Amino acid sequence: MKISLLFLLLLTCISCSDEAEFYSVESFNDSFTNGLFISKLMNNNIPYQYDYQMGEDYVLVHFSFKESLIQLRKDSLKEAKSLSLINLENECSQQNLSQKFKESDVFHMTLNKRSIPMIRVTNKDHSSQKVSAILNAYDWRCD
Question: Which residues contact 44 (CB under 8 A, 6 or more apart)?
Answer without folding.
Answer: 68, 72
